[in-house]
Amino acid sequence: MYAIRGSTATEQGDEFVERARTGTNLEWLQGCLADLRTATGDDRTLVLLLGGRSPYDFRLRVAQSHLRDDMSPSHWSHAALVEDVADPIGGSTLCEVSLEPRYGFGMPAATNAVQRNTLDWYDDPAVVPNIALLSIPVPPARWKEQTDASNQVAQTSLLDQLTRQRVIVDLPGLVLPWLGYVWGVGAAGNPVLDGIGVPSAVMIEALVTAAGYDLSPGLDSQAATPEAFWQTACWWHRYFQLQDREPIRGYYCVGDRLDHAPPRQPSTGGDQ
């Protein structure tokens, strides 16, 4: 059985809050970005959580129900790292490991399954009704720019290292069991129960952890999931305060909940 470490907090933090959506996802994100920049500036890593309604999304959301106390499906099926914010915002570049890649899989081994996409792909709330923007207190330069090792030898960025070296984390090796589960191939079981994280989340966890911030406290980075990121953003604010570190900030909008039916009420007799 897969275990997720729960927070001891009794209330959600004030830094990650619900925000209504009145237009498209891009319009919603535009407003969120403007407010986050006013509050924290630009020098923070941005991560998207996305919850879609396709058969892939549905299977991924149900698979993560084992990570929730009430066993209800997760709101989230995917995560993406914002590499660069563009104007207009729909042209912003994303790094992701999607199980439904916009341009197909190609040869995943060449890039360690890391894909590039643009934000406009997730604009339609009818297709992606759930969306969250996480602002993480890590300068993007730490993972996407060339670094200097002890002022001696220049090193490639963490992102370049991840896309070229599968020894860091074998993302194609995570994609395969998830595709088998989503497609219902043979006896393929739920990867979550084997400690196999959702590939998109594992990629982000590996980069952000290497840059100095733990997105899934207490969990193996290769078991990372969008649900784990959600729980960290909602409930682990006290953990970061005790470490004298900034919590995750951001906004979320959940337009599609896969909730249980209400419990049946026992018969009280009377008319039949």
Give an overview in words.
The protein has one domain. Helices cover 28% and strands 16% of the residues. The protein is built from eight helices and nine strands. The strands form two sheets. The chain has a seven-stranded mixed β-sheet, sandwiched between helices. A two-stranded antiparallel ribbon has the order 7-8. The relative contact order is 0.21.
Provide the descriptors you would attach to this structure in a database record:
272 residues; alpha+beta; seven-stranded mixed β-sheet; 28% helix
- The residue fraction in helices comes out at 25-40%
Count of the separate structural domains: 1
Which descriptor suits the 3D outline? globular
Rg to the nearest angstrom? 19 Å
Uncertain residue segments: none
Total strands: 9
Class derived from helix and strand content:
alpha+beta
Q: Strand percentage, roughly?
A: 15-25%
How does the SSE layout of this entry go?
Elements: E1 16-18, H1 25-40, E2 45-51, H2 55-63, E3 78-84, E4 93-96, E5 115-118, E6 130-136, H3 141-144, E7 147-149, E8 153-155, H4 158-164, H5 171-183, H6 199-210, H7 226-235, H8 237-242, E9 249-254
Parallel strand pairs: 1-9
Antiparallel strand pairs: 2-3, 2-6, 3-4, 4-5, 6-9, 7-8
Brief overview:
The chain is α+β, with helices and mostly antiparallel strands and 272 residues long.
